[in-house]
Amino acid sequence: MGVKINESTEVQIPLKLVVGIIxxxxxxxxxxxxxxxxxxxxEMKLEKFAMQFENYKAQPSRGHTEIxxxxxxxxxxxxxxxxxxxGKK
Length: 89
Hints:
Oligomer: single chain
Order of helices and strands: HH
Number of domains: 2
Largest sheet: none
Distance between the termini: 125 Å
Structural class: mainly alpha
Shape: rod-shaped
């Protein structure tokens, strides 16, 4: 035979069980929020590193910069030689 449950049915739960359930819910919610915060922090850090890497890739290397400087100096020296040679003619 089944038990009929209605508004007048009384259910008794030990206080220890209620406190334990509340503690478990609070602990689980703290754990979830802590993990979400940590994930957000790590995602932000990863995005920062990705941006720094992209900026680093966009910059010319030292060797490239030195070559460009040498090319500019060579062009200036060539112009000076041309100017001097035109003055002597």
